[in-house]
Design brief:
heterodimer; A: 137 residues; alpha/beta; Glucose Oxidase, domain 1; 7-stranded mixed beta barrel; two-stranded antiparallel ribbon; 15% helix; globular; B: 413 residues; Aconitase, domain 3; 5-stranded parallel sheet; 17 helices; 14 strands; 42% helix; 12% strand
């Protein structure tokens, strides 16, 4: 079974479908906060829903407003199950913890080597580990 | 994390349930980043309005009031999403406006000073070298760290609010000297005569270095930059690069020389910015369908001197019928602009001045875009050009005088 070690992590164990992005993310810049679909024109995941997904993003984009946004999308039941960042920033972490959404930073190996969009993965923050349970055929 | 006796008392409920919850939350954030302790803060700047908070955030605040939440240190608010005087004309929801009023009243009950500005560093509070604060939005943080030499991380709304209640924040990131050294150098060879040019520098450097801990060291510029120029540079770096700090040799307090700014490190990367790159950046924006009917001076709010400059550019001119030009600033600056005649000059030209808001977070912005059939948004702020994409605007960065020309002629170039 393929797995990824992460550097920092918060939250409960969750399982879900992976969405792997080659582009960074902000819930304010990129996301329609009423549907959970990435709507920023030209974003590499434009048109993709992140609802109930385990989202892999290489980087976080600016934006203090993201802090409340996570709580807002959780309340609207359109939040992802977890955020997996290569590099993140304090806002993403403060927002995710406030909303109770698991979040991690740093990865080894790079997700592109072991996980594809559509794979079923488990995030275990205490063990700082992400496991690919089932690859999408 | 190591807790002082006072922090242990807060955690035990000694300062009430709200402060207790806030500290528990801050400990989780501190643990994530490996913070060993808290640092006291002297000032908090928080974002809190109905557009960013939603009903969930409002409900959270209502509960905090019930638990007698109260600020332990001076706390101000960031720009909000509704100027009540323009709410109806802007097509904003009356119901959401009621909620916005409730948020303002609720924050005031907790002793928050509702300044409604994202340029607190120009108009409200200027921390000194080494002073620890807990600020958001990102533009306020990068200005505090870089220009004042104060110390803050990006503090999202819930995090800044927690810091307000406890009077402290976890010690990580830019609170620690080890993270404040420069990581690469940028020689500014370009003339940079307009605020849009400074934003373009932020775009060029930020987009290619998206990392909170990347700290550019600017040097080699031919004159001393002004506060508004550093403001547009900072907000663009924070926006495009998620950066929290920069140095500017001979200008910012922790950068008397390149060597000191780099904190003893050897710069592995040396960039330079030329006039040609700035021109190329400005000409790289797609003009979409050519729609020139929306020009925005916002994100960040305009300073007094930006307002003065706009007033002179719009003097004896008119915004083209059918076009909209929006300027946002805070209540203190607007009051001065009324005294000084700048507001009248702008309003006589047909410019809409919104008070206490940012265009980017206006309540109902997506429906507003559709109702007005706006497709493009033109601005001299590289930040707002970058961040408004989720509302499906095609955005175009132009220099200040060009924005005014576009607004009055209705022709996009």
């Amino acid at each position: 079974m393929s797995s990824i070690s992460v550097t920092r992590a918060y939250g409960a164990v969750v399982e879900g479908e992976a969405v792997v992005s080659e582009e960074g993310f902000s819930p304010r810049y990129d996301l329609d906060r009423w549907t959970g679909v990435i709507t920023k024109p030209g974003h590499k995941l434009e048109g993709t829903s992140i609802v109930d997904k385990i989202c892999f993003f290489p980087a976080a984009k600016g934006g203090i407003a993201a802090g409340w946004a996570f709580y807002d999308i959780k309340w609207k039941k359109i939040a992802p199950k977890a955020f997996i960042f290569g590099v993140t920033n304090p806002v993403m972490v403060q927002g995710a913890i406030f909303a109770g959404i698991p979040i991690t930073e740093g990865w080894d190996p790079h997700p592109r080597e072991v996980v594809n969009t559509g794979d079923w993965v488990r995030v275990d923050p205490k063990r700082k580990l992400i496991e690919v349970l089932k690859s999408k055929v | 994390m190591q807790l002082t006796p006072e922090e242990q008392s807060i955690l035990g409920g000694g300062r009430g349930a709200a402060a207790q919850r806030a500290l528990e939350y801050q400990i989780e954030v501190g643990r994530f980043w490996g913070a060993e302790r808290f640092v006291p803060v002297t000032n908090v700047h928080m974002m809190g309005d109905i557009e960013v908070m939603g009903d969930a955030g409002l409900e959270f605040l209502r509960n905090e009031v019930k638990q007698f939440a109260r600020c332990a240190v001076p706390t101000t608010t960031n720009a909000r999403c509704i100027d009540f005087a323009h709410c109806e004309r802007m097509g904003q929801d009356a119901g959401e406006a009621m909620k916005e009023k409730e948020i303002i009243a609720t924050l005031r009950r907790m002793d928050v000073v509702t300044t409604d500005t994202c340029i607190n560093y120009q108009t409200v509070y200027q921390p000194h070298l080494g002073e620890h604060v807990a600020w958001g939005d990102t533009g306020t943080v990068i200005y505090a760290n870089s220009v004042f030499g104060a110390r803050s991380n990006f503090e999202a709304g819930p995090a800044a609010f927690a810091a307000a209640l406890t009077g402290r924040t976890p010690e990580y990131g830019f609170h620690l000297s080890e993270n404040r050294g420069g990581s690469f150098t940028v020689e500014l060879k370009a003339a940079l005569n307009d605020l849009a040019d400074w934003g373009a520098v932020g775009k060029l450097v930020g987009e290619t270095h998206q990392n909170y801990y990347a700290v550019p060291v600017f040097h080699g510029y031919h004159r001393t930059p002004g506060a508004d120029e550093l403001k547009h540079l900072g907000v663009a770096l924070a926006s495009y690069g998620s950066m929290g700090m920069f140095h500017f040799v001979g200008v910012t307090p922790e950068a008397p020389s390149i060597e000191v700014a780099l904190g003893g490190r050897i710069s592995s990367e040396r960039l330079s910015i030329t006039d040609e790159q700035i021109e190329k950046t400005l000409s790289s924006f797609n003009l979409g369908d050519g729609d020139a009917r929306l020009v925005v001076f916002s994100g960040p709010q305009q300073s007094l001197f930006e307002m003065k400059h706009l007033a002179s550019l719009f003097k004896d001119r008119k915004v083209k019928p059918g076009s909209t030009c929006i300027v946002t600033t805070n209540s203190a600056i607007l009051a001065q602009c009324r005294d000084l005649g700048y507001a009248k000059a702008l309003e006589d030209a047909g410019v809409t001045i919104l008070e206490g808001v940012c265009f980017y977070i206006l309540q109902n912005l997506s429906p507003m875009r559709i109702a007005n059939r706006w497709t493009n948004m033109v601005s001299n702020s590289a930040k707002i050009v970058n961040i408004i994409g989720a509302h499906r605007f095609n955005t175009i960065l132009r220099r200040t005088a060009d924005c005014v020309e576009i607004s009055c002629s209705g022709v996009l170039r």
